[in-house]
Each structure stands twice: as C-alpha cells, then as structure tokens.
Amino acid sequence: MKVVLIGAGNLGFHLGQKLYAVGFDVLQVYSRKIANANNLADRIGAKAISSLHKISSEAELYIIAVQDNAIKEVAFQLAKFSLNDKLIVHTSGATHSDDLREAGLNRYGVFYPLQTFSKSKTPDFETIPFCLFANNISDLKLLKQIASKISNSIFEISDEQRATLHVAAVFVNNFSNHLYHVAEQLLNTKELGLDLLLPLIQETVDKIKVASPHEMQTGPAIRMDDKTIQEHLIMLENYPSYQQLYQLLTKSIQESR
Amino acid sequence: MKVVLIGAGNLGFHLGQKLYAVGFDVLQVYSRKIANANNLADRIGAKAISSLHKISSEAELYIIAVQDNAIKEVAFQLAKFSLNDKLIVHTSGATHSDDLREAGLNRYGVFYPLQTFSKSKTPDFETIPFCLFANNISDLKLLKQIASKISNSIFEISDEQRATLHVAAVFVNNFSNHLYHVAEQLLNTKELGLDLLLPLIQETVDKIKVASPHEMQTGPAIRMDDKTIQEHLIMLENYPSYQQLYQLLTKSIQESR
C-alpha cells in the first residue's frame, strides 16, 4: 500500500519508519524544511519534498502529521492539488475532523496515536492506542487494517470522545509532569534530587494498572489529616504558587471522597 | 541481630518478612490486634504480642512502624518499659525525630523507606530509598549497615530534608494519583476507560528517568496555546472543580517557563 507522509516531526519521524518496517510503501515525505524531510525519507526509501505542489497523486493514504495549527491549511492545499477523493487523515488529538471536511476533502479521517513522542526515543508502537475515525465505513475499515499492522490497541473514537481523551491526556501527562517539576524544585532547595522519588513515582503508576486511582488514593488529603496538611502548607509559604496547588488539589481529593 | 517490630500494617508486614529473609532475628511482632501480629509473626518465626508491657528487652533494634499519630505514644510506652537506652527508630516520613527524644528515649533515629506499600504487593526493597537518621554517629553507622542488607539505595537525611521529601512525595504520589482519577472520571462520561491513557502515563514517567521534568514539559500550557486551553476550559464547564485545577496547573506551568 502506497502512503504519503506529510510532516517529519517527532511523530512523523517514528511513524514513517514504522510504516516502512511493516511493509508500507512510503512514496514521499513532506516537510517545510527539506533537511527534515530528507532525514526521514533517506531511512525509508521515500522521496523528500518541501513543497506540496510536488505531492504525488499515486498514494492510497495521505497522513497529515504536522502541528495542529497547520493541519487545516495543509488540508486546503491537498484539496487544491486535486486530492479531494483520496483518503486523507490527520494524527492530532486536538483537531476536529470537520477541519478536513471544511477544507474540501471528501474522504477524511483521524489516525491518532495516543502517546507523546520524542525524536531520541523509539516508541513501542504495538502498545500505543490508535484512535481511529473516518467519515465513511469502508475507509474506517481500511484505517483499522492499517493500524492493526502497527499496533495491537485499536479504537474507533468519535470526535467528541477524542476531545475528552485530549483533555484527560493533559491531566495525566502535562499536569503530572508539572507536579514532578514542583517536587524537583522543592527537593533542590534541600540539596536533594528527584531520583529519590522515582521508585515512588513508578509505584504510583504501577498501582493504577491493577486498580482504579480512586481506590488507590492515599495521603493526608484523603484521610482528612489536617495536622499534616497545615504543616505542609506552612512549609510551602515561600512558594505561594505551589501552596495554592497544594490547597486546590487537597480540596479536590476531599471532594472526591 | 535481634529486632523487635512494633506494627504489622502494610509496611511492617513487608519489612518484617524482608528482615527475616536477609537473616535478622525478629523476636517479636507487636500489633494492637493480635490476629495481625500473628499473621506476620507466624511467617517469620517471631512471637506475636498485642500489649507493649510484654515487649522483650533482648533486642538491639526496635522498629516503630505504626500510624504517624500513634508513634509518640508508642515511644512513651517504650521509655516507660525501660528501653530508654535501646536504639529505637520510627519509619515515618512525616514525623519529627524530636518526638522520640521528647518521649524520653536516649538513642533514637529514623528508618524511612520512601515508598508506598500495599499488603497485596511484595515491594522490591532493593530499589527503595532508605532515608536514615540517628541522634548519634555510631547508631547512624549501625542503621546504614542494617539498611544496606535490605536496599541498595541508602541516604542520610536530616529531619528538615525528610519533611521536604514528604511534601514532595505528596505532590508526585497523592496528587498525581488524583489527576489520574480526574482523567478517569472525564473518560467515563464518554464511555472510555483509563486503560487508553496507561501507555501515555507510563511514558510520562519513563521520560523523567532520563531528563528533568522541566525539560520534558509539553502541552498547551507551556506552548501558550490559548485556543486549546480555552476549548478545554469550555469542555470542563460541567466540572467546576476540575476546571479550577486545569486553570491553576496551567498558570503554574506558564510561570515555570
């Protein structure tokens, strides 16, 4: 199956290589920066392009893996270059599929791997949930077939569900990471490092693999231990922003009891 | 070496078995509930007691592994039963070592394994950071020797440092877990489960094992993506408490830029 990959960022870089590894024929890799396109294209026997008017009309699937704010414009370009009747998907958690329809595409969908990607780390695609959507049943079936060559975790997800997944992902990824940052800042004031907390952080995650976080909640907030909470708030007096976080998270935990 | 273990909760249950496994002679296990004491004592060739006046004076180390709010009272009892000159440690992250001194003990310390324990899961003690303190150098040396038979991760930690570790642990363990709960609640409203986010949650943790969370921060907050932030806040309108959390965490991330 012939594919064109539009975008060679963190996701594109890894997805392109995975598609190639499982036997897809990636015809072209597009990036605004030709060096980025080349870097990926050279690894997977594809042609690098840096302008969309060179895009091939030979592929059966076009994957848009550019930044969220550029998706609609790319889709417009693809429509302009007469790819309206090709299957075109984006890979974004935050972008409505309507953006593709409004750009003038007739066959469109979403091919969203629910994971965070960094260039230096090869992801384990088999375990990544792929959230799929298409505006017609036969294309959805096709996307499922494609995704199942890459991952063992395939889900049909509506735009509305995906929007909720994206907010939830912000909570568990961006916000948790910020809490790790807060912890590191606090520890650094006492010449301690975050490494001391890594086993605890891992165990917190291991626990929710076997039981719901609601059951697993521990600590001063859930046991209404006002003495400890007050001591902690006093210790955080020099960090008003962290103190506020502590208070609000404690309140939210207590409301969930 | 002879040890008495006071407390047979989650920590006591696992620590007692580990001490036994690496060759310590656990003389007695105390619990207010004799059944709990028996359950552990039977596994490690110890005698179960449910009243502190039966406590042996033969041990070289007494480990208090009871709930935080009971530590001082237990220490008073031990002083009353003439164990003032024995080495007595507590295992708490949140309790000042002064509580042991004020109870009348002369040789006291802290033997704090920085991990969360649940009865059903055998912890991997080798990787758990043990935070040690003693009020004199020879006892500190002794605690280090003992801990090094259990764990490869030994730290000398002052009361002040331990207090900061404990607040930081609340952020990374209790508060992160609450964010997982929030995510699960949001997903459930759309007939989705938290399992979809588990690979992302694990990856978030894997990343901070190789780089600081500050470097690893991603998402709408750090990239000042007001459009996405506003969309998320609108989606959270029916969950004012989660909306508040979203706003405050976003603000805190942006202040850390």
Word description of this protein:
- The structure is a homodimer of 257-residue chains.
- Chain A is built from 10 helices and 8 strands.
- With 257 residues, chain A is α/β, with parallel strands linked by helices.
- An 8-stranded mixed β-sheet of chain A has the order 3-2-1-4-5-6-7-8, with helices on both faces.
- The longest helix of chain A has 30 residues, at 159-188.
- Chain A is elongated, with a radius of gyration of 22 Å.
- In chain A, 49% of the residues are buried.
- At the A-B interface, α6, α7, α8, α9 and α10 of A face α6, α7, α8, α9 and α10 of B.
**Global outline of chain A:** elongated
Radius of gyration of chain A: 22 Å
The sequence of SSEs of chain A as H and E is EHEHEEHEHEEHEHHHHH
Sheet with the most strands: spatial strand order of chain A: 3-2-1-4-5-6-7-8
Mean pLDDT of chain A: 97
Largest interface summary: A-B, 89 and 89 residues
Strand composition percent of chain A: 5-15%
Can you tell me the residue ranges of chain A where pLDDT is under 50 for at least 5 consecutive residues? Answer: none
| Oligomeric state | homodimer
The percent range for helix content of chain A is 40-55%
Structural classification of chain A: alpha/beta
